[in-house]
Amino acid sequence: MSKPKRKLRRRILLVLTTFVAVLIVAVAVLLFTSSAMTVLVGVNIDEKVEHVNHNVTANETIGTDDYSTVYLTREITPEAIMEMYETLGVEATGNVAVKLSTGEAGNDYHLDANLIKDLVDEVEGTIVECNTAYPGQRTSTDIHMQVAEDHGFTAIADVDIMDTNGSISIPIEGGQYLQEDVVGANIANYDFMVVLTHFKGHPQGGFGGAMKNTSIGCASPEGKALIHTAGSSATSMFNTLFHKQDEFLDSMAEAAKAIDDYYDNGERIIYISVMNNLSVDCDCIASPAEPSMADYGILASLDPVALDQACVDIVYEAHDGHDLVERMESRNGLEILEHANEIGLGNQDYKLVSLDD
After folding, report:
1. Cα distances (angstroms) measured from residue 355 to each of 57, 202, 213, 215, 316
2. What's the pLDDT tens digit per position in 300-343?
3. What is the tens place of the pLDDT at every residue in 144-153?
4. Beta strands at 167-171 and 192-198: parallel, antiparallel or unpaired
5. 3-state secondary structure the chain
6. How do strand 126-129 and strand 96-99 relate by DSSP bridges?
7. With pLDDT > 90 as the criterion, what percentage of the chain qualifies?
8. Within the chain, what is the greatest distance between any pair of CA atoms?
9. What average pLDDT does the segment 189-197 reach?
10. pLDDT per residue as tens digits for the range 335-354
11. DSSP designation for 219
12. d(CA 357, CA 353)
């Protein structure tokens, strides 16, 4: 074979090899993100916000089989947090856990300790969290407690990193991907849970709401890995190459149901969410994107699905919610709401009751 022909042959082989390599990478990425990249084209947002602006008096029923009630105030103050708690009409008794995100070191968008102090005092609560499964400043209890102190939480209450003494397994009824939720062992010490959530975007889930707070937030590192991998690994949350995005989101919904069921099928747990510092990134990011949507208010419900749905609908209705909408849709974030509704955790239909009128 002549020299020019050999060169041509090598070039053809190089082109073919490069094409095959690119194709393999593309297929792998597609397998991982096929669900995540499903943009909700053509969704009628008016249908999603059926009950938004449907204000009823605060003394009406908390909900029916057809819908749940979500309360709203546009004020973001300690007094407004207290009003939300009192309006829900369920007294936090016994040993009370106050579940929140302590926020990664360097992140200033987490809940302000001064904002929640009065409520934590009122219920005589202990702030609870679990260690993370990803590298950072909250991977072990010692350094996690330092972050909690730096962010002002140890100054207002005792803080319990619930997986300090290991994990326990609680059952998941009706789970498609998970049969158990592996959570911090110290959850067994609490009779009641107040879920205080900073609603915001999330780089993997699309948004971080009440269900993310209880599912990922109450899980030990092993439990977090199981949720992220849809039950296939308890050792690495990054073992997700061949797991579709929807499986992760559905697993979060299932783990959130386990927590709600653990507290007497929702009888001993309440949910309050604060819509401020509305970045597309979550409190677990050390250097999050700056908030792109204006602070909105505080919402509360006995139903975490209705609560998250209401927060999502408010983002869609906001004139400056574009970045958050793009983040949610690019991750197919609304899937968690649909699956949670299907497995009976809560109701996507709700009435929004303004306390400001």
Report:
1. 8, 28, 25, 29, 21
2. 999 999 999 999 999 999 999 999 999 999 999 999 999 999 99
3. 999 999 999 9
4. unpaired
5. CCHHHHHHHHHHHHHHHHHHHHHHHHHHHHHHHCCCCCCCCCCCHHHHCCCCCCCCCCCCCCECCCCEEEEEECCCCHHHHHHHHHHHCCCCCCCEEEECCCCCCCCCCCCCHHHHHHHHHHCCCEEEECCCCCCCCCCCHHHHHHHHHHCCCCCCCCEEECCCCCEEEEECCCCCCCCEEEEEHHHHHCCEEEEEEECEEECCCEEECHHHHHHHHHECHHHHHHHHCCCCCCCCCCCCCCCCHHHHHHHHHHHHHHHHHHCHHHCCEEEEEEECCECCCCCCCCCCCCCCECCCEEEEECCHHHHHHHHHHHHHHCCCCHHHHHHHHHCCCCHHHHHHHHCCCCCCCEEEEECCC
6. parallel
7. 74
8. 91
9. 98
10. 999 999 999 999 999 999 99
11. B
12. 9
Write the burial class of residue 108 (CB in 10 Å: 0-12 exposed, 13-18 middle, 19+ buried).
exposed
| Amino acid identity for residue 188 in this structure | A
Mean pLDDT of 253-260: 98
Q: Please state, in angstroms and rounded to a whole number, the distance separating the CA atoms of residues 173 and 176.
A: 9
**Structure tokens belonging to residue 37:** 């990249």
Question: What is the token pair recorded at 3?
Answer: 């020299």
Neighbours of 225 (CB within 10 A): 23
pLDDT at 21 over 50: no
Number of H helices, E strands in the chain: 11, 12
Q: CB–CB of 311/199 below 8 Å?
A: yes
> Inter-axis angle of helices 78-88 and 113-122, to 10 degrees?
40
In sequence order, which residues have a C-beta less than 8 Å from that of residue 2 and are 6 or more positions away? none
The 10s digit of each residue's pLDDT in 80-114 is 999 999 999 999 999 999 999 999 999 999 999 99
Token code pair at residue 9: 């042959």
Locate tokens 């919904």: which residue? 253
Q: Give the sign of the dihedral formed by CA 105, CA 111, CA 114, CA 116.
A: negative
pLDDT tier, 217 (very low <50, low <70, confident <90, very high otherwise): very high
